[in-house]
UniProtKB/TrEMBL annotation:
Keywords: Coated pit, Cytoplasmic vesicle, Membrane, Repeat. It is a peripheral membrane protein. This is Clathrin heavy chain linker core motif domain-containing protein. The keyword Acyltransferase does not apply. It comes from Aphanomyces astaci (Crayfish plague agent). The lineage of its organism: Eukaryota, Sar, Stramenopiles, Oomycota, Saprolegniomycetes. GO terms for cellular component: clathrin complex; clathrin-coated pit; cytoplasmic vesicle membrane.
Length: 774
């Protein structure tokens, strides 16, 4: 009594076991013996007692306990011990899996059977059950775990309704035994349906029907129909399910799937039943793609009850327009809305739905677009009224072009008057009329535009161009009245294109382009007017034009050339003019001009005029010209006329030789023509005694006593007396030499007398000399 020494108690335990005196009570109740010692002893006698001894060690002899129970097939005791201990490490030792390729150990199977059949059903502690289940899970024994859980959950234990166990049973079946899942789902009621269903429907397990039943059983109808739609993909079952449930979320999911499957009609019906406007953007896009607007209208009306969104209202307007429900459309846009009426109207207009677009543009007072709608609808009067309100040049153009296309020229004219006052748009308007061949109506419109308050230079200019094309008879009058308000350069191009050269000349003159005016008349004689030409030619800047004008007159109006030259005289290079006329052999045409400019004593002019006088045989005029204007090549001219058939011109040649001191040539000509007086005068003018004596001898040889006498008289100072006397004496001209001699004697006497007077001593000089001597 009172002894707690382990050895003593070990000995007592062995005695109790050996004597079989209720050893179970001792082993169970005595706390002082050593379980390892007593248990080892009991193994040889009774393994059950060894189990009790090892059990009393509270885990210290677990390895021995497992060994003894396994070796002696005490699996029921081992199962109970394991459940009671709740030690996962201990469970791990007994549930260890066989090495891959080897058969499962019979002892493990026997142990599992005892756990399932005996130990766990006897357990009352939830922790024991939980630990056991966890141990099976850790050991990765899904089939055995299912077997275990079926025993606990399905066979009426107090843990049958445990949610965690039911969850575990279903999940384990999902992972390890899929064919049992549906049975478990139908038999169990206390498991986490949505979570388990999400696992079942996953890519790994694909238990779609089971997931559907779970969702359905869990009243998760939205998820249930999702399985039908997304995984089972049975639209018929989904519709039947939605109809049976009749829940908005279910209908919404069905509708979205129907929409994705392009079943727009059914989708819209489902959306309406769901009262779900959330997918309106996709619905509208699909309806637009399929051009199914009739079904869309009801959906959009439903959506507008809960959503105020621009896209909704805009699409509803468009759908009503596409279905040609104009009354409903007008009613809708008249009521408050947030639609993009302008953009929708533009879209309808682009797609050719002008009646609907008209209603929208009327609603927002977009008169510019409204006018175009009326045009497209063929209501041109209404189009003009709308354009008047819009007062936009772009609108006026659209309406005008449309009216022109259908020959509504009165209405087109009303529009055109508002267009032509804008210079940037005038040419386009004109081009439109011209392309369609309505030039008469265009002229009428432009003529009306002349009186507009906003009339600009473009109107006057373009009308002139149009006249040049279609009514040239009015062009000159128009130009004369309005040339100051026109773009002259544009009209000039039009005149040139239309060959209206007289109009071009007028414009050049009025614009101060005198050079171009003259050039035009020169290049296009049809535009020539003599007085106008003379007026312009005096004011040109380019002097070359003067000479072109001279050529022009030579070719076209030679009789007026003198007048032209008289006008241009101050500006001309007369030598160049002479050269120009000489090349064309037209010098005789300009005699008066040459006479007028001869006062400048220019060589070219003098020579030209002298040549003309020779051709005209006007020797008197030639003599006057030579005497008055000596700036020309006199020798050359003399050579030209010295052989002239008319004597007077030969005399002029001799005269020119004399003037240039070529007395011998002059005398030769005069003697040849028997112009003895000229010869005598030439000899006198030469002052050359030899020439005078030769002439004297010439007359002697010619037996011309009178000329002999005249030569002596005229050339008195040049002829030696002895020569004269000898010639007279030899040829019997004593009487004809006598005047010369008389004159000579007189002169000689006068000279002597003068000399005597000069050399005679003065009286006072002589007296002075006498007085000095005394």
């Amino acid at each position: 009594q009172g002894n707690t020494e382990p050895a003593t108690h070990n000995a007592m335990g062995k005695i109790y076991v050996t004597l079989n005196r209720d050893p179970q009570a001792f082993l169970i109740n005595n706390p002082y013996y050593e379980p390892s010692v007593v248990g080892k002893f009991c193994e040889k006698l009774d393994p059950a007692l060894a189990f009790l001894a090892y059990q009393r060690a509270n885990g210290a002899c677990d390895d021995d306990l497992i060994r003894v129970t396994t070796e002696n097939s005490l699996f029921k005791d081992l199962a109970r011990y394991l459940v009671h201990r709740q030690d996962l490490d201990l469970w791990g030792k007994v549930l260890v899996k066989a090495v891959e390729g080897e058969a499962e150990a019979p002892s493990r199977r026997a142990l599992i059977d005892q756990v399932v059949q005996t130990a766990l059903p006897e357990a009352k502690n939830p922790d024991e059950v939980s630990t056991t289940v966890r141990a099976f899970m850790n050991a990765e024994l899904p089939n055995e775990l299912i077997e275990l859980l079926e025993r606990i959950v399905l066979q009426g234990t107090e843990f049958s309704t445990n949610k965690n166990l039911q969850n575990l049973l279903v999940l384990t079946a999902i992972k390890a035994c899929k064919e049992k899942v549906m049975d478990y789902v139908n038999r169990l009621d206390n498991f986490d349906g949505p979570d388990i269903a999400r696992i079942a429907v996953g890519e790994q397990y694909q238990l779609y029907e089971e997931a559907f039943v779970i969702y359905k059983k869990s009243k998760c109808n939205s998820d249930a129909i999702g399985v039908l739609l997304d995984h089972i993909q049975d639209m018929t079952r989904a519709y039947e399910f939605a109809d049976r449930c009749n829940e908005p979320d279910v209908w919404s999911k069905l509708a979205r799937s129907q929409l994705d499957a392009n079943n727009l009609h059914e989708a819209l019906a489902s959306f309406i039943k769901a009262g779900d406007p959330s997918s309106y953007a996709a619905v509208i896009a699909t309806a637009e793609r399929d051009n199914n607007w009739a079904d869309l209208i009801e959906y959009l009306r439903m959506a507008r009850k809960s959503v105020k969104e621009q896209h909704l209202d805009t699409s509803l307007i468009y759908a009503l327009a596409k279905c040609e429900k104009y009354a409903e459309l007008e009613e809708f846009i008249s009521a408050p809305n947030v639609a993009q009426i302008q953009n929708t109207g533009e879209r309808l207009f682009t797609e050719g739905m002008f009646n609907a677009a008209k209603l929208l543009f009327q609603n927002i007072n977009n008169n510019a677009k409204l006018a175009i709608c009326y045009v497209r609808l063929g209501k041109f009067r209404e189009a003009v009224d709308a354009a008047t309100k819009a007062n936009s040049v772009g609108t006026w153009k659209e309406v005008n072009y449309a009216c022109v296309d259908v020959n509504e020229f009165r209405l087109a004219g009303l529009c055109g008057l508002h267009i032509i006052v804008h210079p940037d748009h005038l040419e386009e308007l004109i081009l439109n009329y011209e392309r369609r061949g309505h030039w008469a109506e265009l002229l009428k419109l432009m003529e009306q535009g002349l009186g507009l308050e906003g009339a600009h230079a473009g109107i006057f200019t373009e009308l002139a161009i149009l006249y040049s094309k279609y009514n040239p008879t009015k062009l000159m009058e128009h130009i004369k009245i309005f040339h100051s308000r026109m773009n002259v350069s544009k009209i000039l191009r039009a005149c040139e294109k239309g060959l209206h050269w007289d109009h071009a000349v007028y414009l050049y003159k009025e614009d101060g382009q005198f050079d171009n005016a003259v050039r035009t008349m020169v290049d296009h004689p049809v535009a020539f007017a003599h007085d106008l030409f003379l007026d312009c030619i005096q004011r040109v800047r380019n002097q070359e034009i003067h000479y072109k004008a001279i050529n022009f007159y030579l070719e076209q109006h030679p009789l007026e050339l003198t007048r032209l030259l008289q006008v241009l005289t101050p500006n001309l290079d007369h030598a160049r003019v002479v050269h120009q006329l000489r090349k064309s052999d037209n010098l005789p045409l300009v005699v008066e001009y040459l006479k007028d400019v001869q006062k400048e004593n220019l060589s070219a002019v003098n020579e030209a005029l002298n040549e003309i006088l020779v051709e005209d045989e006007d020797y008197a005029g030639l003599r006057d010209s030579i005497d008055s204007y000596d700036n020309f090549d006199q020798i050359s001219f003399a050579q030209k006329v010295e052989k002239h058939e008319l004597l007077e011109f030969r005399r002029i040649a001799a005269y020119l030789y004399k003037k240039n001191k070529r007395y011998g040539q002059s005398l030769k000509l005069s003697k040849a023509d028997k112009m003895y007086k000229d010869a005598i005068d030439t000899a006198f003018d030469s002052g050359d005694a030899e020439l005078a004596e030769d002439l004297l001898r010439f007359f002697v040889a010619a037996h011309d006593k009178e000329c002999f006498c005249a030569t002596l008289f005229t050339c008195y100072k040049l002829i030696k007396p002895d020569v004269a006397m000898e010639l007279a004496w030899r040829n019997g001209y004593v009487d004809f030499v006598m005047p010369y001699l008389i004159q000579y004697v007189k002169n000689l006497n006068d000279k002597i007398k003068v000399l005597d007077e000069r050399t005679k001593p003065k009286e006072h000089d002589g007296q002075h000399h006498i007085d000095g001597g005394i």
